[in-house]
């Protein structure tokens, strides 16, 4: 492989089976996380800890919930029930809150960490199901896309701080709401921009990618494709973007860095030669922009060389389908359809303990558990000794009282 990877782990989810973790450098399957049937956009990584969150829709009852996993157990360690089925998930950068997009158009806000995973509120963001969620580079804004083609931008501080949200007062918390596409918004990614003009890119079932000024909510440009589009990623320099086509091809486009304006589609849009056997559901930049990884609906997961557009590795997926993908690194985590790494601050959740560091963390956790077990045993032993001492002193006191009574009776005679 021409490029070296730095402790990167790829996680893929499926509507039919487990979440699977791979070593990005070798393609080795590292772990399965079972018990979750995950819809599109329903997989995310949480905060600076080691939590994996996945949307789950019960095949028996169609009820919705969120499953939480840690890295050293393959089974769900916490189940968070929700009032409706949800699909897209994203966590706040500090890991204290989890946002879930519901079928009703509500965004559910959950507090983490919590013994109960309390649903703090449901915010009525869209008039149709929420289809995707992203968080701005600085962690201050939640950006949501809906099946009605709208994009909503909400300050997270107001969303969390509001006591309640109804359709009447929802507009008070929304920074921008605009009709972005003629069909469902399938993915959103975000750049850092220049001169305070942060850019977001949205893609849609209407076969377009559109570029927006995040702060102003204004339209910058549109690129049309011959198929529906499910994912988009930016390279770290934000001069090139990659688009996931429903027919299995990846398209590469170019922007003018100086003005952040789109270069002519006809001159700069390139279709890579190799093709997945199904629609590409997710794209993520890796290895500081040297590689791109794609996950397709047919279960294939490929690592590409970004410069040449050639596949350099195929990960073996045991499941027949893929619904979403995220990449965790030793420095942070990147969500599907994201293109930036932690050096630019985009989608970095600070997830530590990946690769060799993960093994060390598991070992440290086990050692801590052993220490706690020893402490618990010592505490139990100390309590037993204290109880024995109390019992001994009680007996001694009884003997003293008995002798005192005997002395008193003898003196009376």
Automatic annotation (TrEMBL):
According to the lineage, what is the superkingdom? Eukaryota
An individual GO BP term = DNA-templated DNA replication
DNA-binding found in the keyword field: no
The ranges of the WD repeats are: 123-153, 273-314
Which intervals of the chain form a coiled coil? none
Provide this UniProt record's keywords sorted from A to Z: WD repeat
Cellular component, GO annotation: nuclear pre-replicative complex; rixosome complex
User: Keyword Transmembrane helix on this protein?
Assistant: no
SMART domains found in the cross-reference section: WD40
SUPFAM superfamilies to which the protein is assigned, alphabetical: Quinoprotein alcohol dehydrogenase-like
Specify the signal sequence span. Answer: none
Task: Spell out the protein name for this chain.
Answer: Protein ROOT INITIATION DEFECTIVE 3-like
Species lineage, top-down?
A: Eukaryota, Viridiplantae, Streptophyta, Embryophyta, Tracheophyta
């Amino acid at each position: 492989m021409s490029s070296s990877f730095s402790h990167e782990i790829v996680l893929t989810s499926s509507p039919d089976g487990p979440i699977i973790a791979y070593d990005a450098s070798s393609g080795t399957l590292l772990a399965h996380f079972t018990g979750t049937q995950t819809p599109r956009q329903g997989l995310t990584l949480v905060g600076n800890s080691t939590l994996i969150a996945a949307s789950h829709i019960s095949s028996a009852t169609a009820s919705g919930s969120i499953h939480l996993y840690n890295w050293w157990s393959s089974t769900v360690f916490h189940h968070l029930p929700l009032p409706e089925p949800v699909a897209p998930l994203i966590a706040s950068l500090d890991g204290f809150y989890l946002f879930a997009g519901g079928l009703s158009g509500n965004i559910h806000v959950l507090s983490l960490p919590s013994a109960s995973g309390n649903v703090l509120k449901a915010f009525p963001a869209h008039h149709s199901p929420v289809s995707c969620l992203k968080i701005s580079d600085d962690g201050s804004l939640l950006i949501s896309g809906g099946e009605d083609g709208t994009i909503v931008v909400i300050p997270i501080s107001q969303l969390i701080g509001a006591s309640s949200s109804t359709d009447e007062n929802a507009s008070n918390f929304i920074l921008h709401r605009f009709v972005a596409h003629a069909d469902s918004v399938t993915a959103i990614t975000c750049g850092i921009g220049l001169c305070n003009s942060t850019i977001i890119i949205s893609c849609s079932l209407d076969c377009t990618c559109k570029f927006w000024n995040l702060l102003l909510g204004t339209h910058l440009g549109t690129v049309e494709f011959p198929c529906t589009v499910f994912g988009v990623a930016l390279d770290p320099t934000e001069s090139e973007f990659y688009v996931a086509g429903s027919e299995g091809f990846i398209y590469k486009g170019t922007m003018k860095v100086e003005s952040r304006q789109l270069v002519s589609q006809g001159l700069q849009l390139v279709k890579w030669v190799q093709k997945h056997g199904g629609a590409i559901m997710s794209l993520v930049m890796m290895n500081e922009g040297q590689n791109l990884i794609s996950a397709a609906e047919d279960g294939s997961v490929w690592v590409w060389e970004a410069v040449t557009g050639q596949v350099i590795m195929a990960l073996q997926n045991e499941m027949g389908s893929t619904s979403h993908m995220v990449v965790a690194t030793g420095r942070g985590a990147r969500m599907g359809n994201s293109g930036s790494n932690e050096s630019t601050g985009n989608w970095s959740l600070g997830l530590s303990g990946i690769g060799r560091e993960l093994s060390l963390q598991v070992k440290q956790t086990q050692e801590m558990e052993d220490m706690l077990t020893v402490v618990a045993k010592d505490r139990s032993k100390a309590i037993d000794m204290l109880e024995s001492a109390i019992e001994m002193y009680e007996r001694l006191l009884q003997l003293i009282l008995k002798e005192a009574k005997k002395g008193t009776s003898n003196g009376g005679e």
